[in-house]
Design goal:
six-stranded antiparallel barrel, 9 helices
Length: 343
């Protein structure tokens, strides 16, 4: 019995095709845990829809993925001096975010990242004059800009890209290809129409693989059920049960990513109030699990174990049965499943 990712395969692939149509020349991204599907599975999908390129996060991911995908591999993490060398085929393209980095990549295929309002990494406008000599020593695949998801200051994504296009053109740098991210379809079309001599390629991961939440569902199988009365002791820490009910042992623990929640950026008073409330409950060992039973999110009876979670199901809910499955609301990018089932 397992923590399972169920995939409505036809619906999932139909969504992929809708994204591909909206972003011609799309560069699919497969990094981290493969968005919950794994690198091998996503490489198969990319091969299936005929992409010539796949973007990965690191050189280590490129080394693993090269055996699953036969096209070009774009490494998104920029090259750094003295990084550990990883043997990679010539079809791997490296991202570079500094003039020094370009100079150290002599003979390699490179994409040069420019500094966006993300302020994460990239060459600056002041660096552009120094790039001419450096790019003569590499095989330049294009420039790239990584844009923020939210624009709370009211700025415009298209304007930011146009600004960089103008700077690169003024510096007489080649503009045959520009890799972009976090653009809406209409923004992408606008840029392609405004700069017909440049091929824009959208690097897309989340929207491509996870853009239709209804196409996937996590479920954890119930492994054991034990009846408890108010006051009974249980678990590693021998806490007392707060009420009559059942302890349900469910597949899915910390090794799967259950209970390991990434920090969220809270916006607005309602989300902040909920965050404060959750923190307050956690101080008295009350933590909601991601598992649902009878339409309600159920409480952890105690912190999740390595491969299972113990949930408390109160008397007023239907009795859970061994072998049944609980839907789990899990974050794809932090979850590792025992199996994936297509249906």
């Amino acid at each position: 019995m397992a923590l399972t990712l169920y995939v409505d395969t036809d619906r999932w692939r139909a969504h992929q095709q809708s994204v591909i149509r909206q972003f011609p020349g799309l560069v699919p991204v497969c990094k981290g845990n493969g968005y919950g599907f794994g690198h091998e599975r996503l490489a198969e999908e990319v091969t299936g829809f005929g992409s010539d390129i796949l973007a990965v996060g690191t050189t280590y991911e490129a080394a693993r993925t090269k055996d699953f995908f036969g096209g070009d591999l774009l490494v998104l993490t920029p090259y750094r001096r003295n990084e550990e060398p990883v043997p990679l085929p010539d079809r791997v393209i490296r991202s570079v975010s500094s003039v020094e980095g370009v100079g150290l990549m002599r003979g390699a295929r490179v994409v040069i990242e420019v500094m966006s309002s993300m302020k994460r990494h990239g060459v600056t406008e002041e660096d552009l004059g120094k790039l001419h000599a450096a790019i003569d020593e590499v095989r330049l695949e294009g420039f790239a800009i990584h844009l923020p998801l939210d624009r709370t200051d009211g700025t415009d994504a298209v304007d930011e890209v146009i600004g960089w296009m103008d700077r690169l053109r003024a510096a007489r740098l080649p503009l045959h290809t520009m890799f972009v991210s976090h653009l809406q379809p209409d923004e992408f079309r606008q840029l392609q129409q405004q700069f017909p001599q440049t091929r824009f390629r959208a690097r897309i991961g989340t929207r491509l693989w996870l853009g239709d939440p209804g196409a996937t569902e996590y479920r954890g199988a119930i492994l054991d059920v034990t009846r408890v009365a108010k006051g009974d002791r249980f678990g590693y820490r021998q806490q007392r049960s707060a009420a009559d009910g059942w302890l349900a042992v469910v597949a899915g623990g910390t090794s799967h990513g259950v209970g390991l929640e990434a920090p969220k950026a809270l916006q607005g008073m309602t989300s902040r109030a909920k965050g404060v409330a959750r923190a307050g409950l956690a101080t008295v060992n009350r933590n909601l699990s991601p598992f649902l039973w009878s339409g309600k999110q159920r409480w952890f009876a105690e912190p999740p174990h390595m491969q299972v979670s113990i949930l408390f199901v109160p008397d007023d809910a239907p009795e859970p049965k061994v072998g049944e499955e609980l839907v789990a609301q899990l974050r794809h990018t932090t979850t590792s499943v025992d199996r994936t089932v297509d249906h």
